[in-house]
């Protein structure tokens, strides 16, 4: 059963790993989108968030300070949900629906990161297939 935890960690983190590559390689388009959503300056925000999810996903995938990786991912998701995917001011129904879908995806994935954080702290030294124990002892 321990292998399920490893597979789950990898699958959960892949979306952030691939997204970090987009943040770091397609900065211009992503910065433009961020600024269109009111995040200024867009370029540093895109680079910073790309680095946060890159580090977070690598930590979770390899089991190095899994709790820190989960925290980084959760913080990214909360900020993305509330800064980038505010659906409530949208007037056009299709745009509102698309942003609501992205908002709910971010919130749901944040819940997954918080579950991972809980498991990392609850199992502490017994996390399967990890390189280190959690960074923060709770």
Considering the chains and any ligands shown, give keywords for the structure:
76% helix; 0% strand; 138 residues
**Biggest sheet statistics:** none
Number of strands: 0
Overall tally of structural domains: 1
Determine Rg (CA atoms, Å): 16 Å
The rough form would be described as elongated
What is the CA-CA span between the terminal residues? 25 Å
Query: How do the helices and strands follow one another from N- to C-terminus?
Result: HHHHH
The low-confidence parts are: none
Summary, kept brief:
With 138 residues, the chain is mainly α. The chain has five helices and no strands. The relative contact order is 0.15.
Protein architecture, described:
It is built from five helices and no strands. The protein is an all-alpha fold and 138 residues long. Helix 3 packs antiparallel against helix 4 and helix 4 (66-84) runs antiparallel to helix 5. The longest helix has 31 residues, at 93-123. 27% of the residues are buried. The model has no long low-confidence stretch (mean pLDDT 95).
What topology emerges from the helices and strands here?
Blueprint: H1 2-25, H2 27-36, H3 42-62, H4 66-84, H5 93-123
Helix pairs in contact: 1-3, 2-3, 3-4, 4-5
């Amino acid at each position: 059963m321990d292998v399920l935890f490893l597979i789950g960690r990898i699958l959960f983190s892949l979306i952030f790993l691939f997204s970090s590559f987009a943040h770091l390689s397609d900065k211009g388009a992503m910065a433009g989108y961020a600024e269109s959503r009111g995040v200024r300056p867009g370029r540093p925000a895109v680079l910073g968030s790309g680095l946060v999810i890159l580090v977070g996903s690598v930590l979770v995938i390899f089991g190095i300070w899994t709790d820190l990786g989960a925290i980084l991912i959760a913080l990214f998701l909360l900020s993305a949900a509330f800064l980038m995917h505010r659906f409530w001011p949208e007037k056009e129904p299709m745009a509102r629906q698309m942003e609501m879908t992205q908002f709910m995806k971010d919130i749901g994935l944040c819940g997954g990161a918080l579950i991972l954080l809980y498991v990392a702290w609850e199992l502490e030294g017994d996390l399967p297939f990890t390189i280190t124990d959690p960074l923060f002892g709770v």
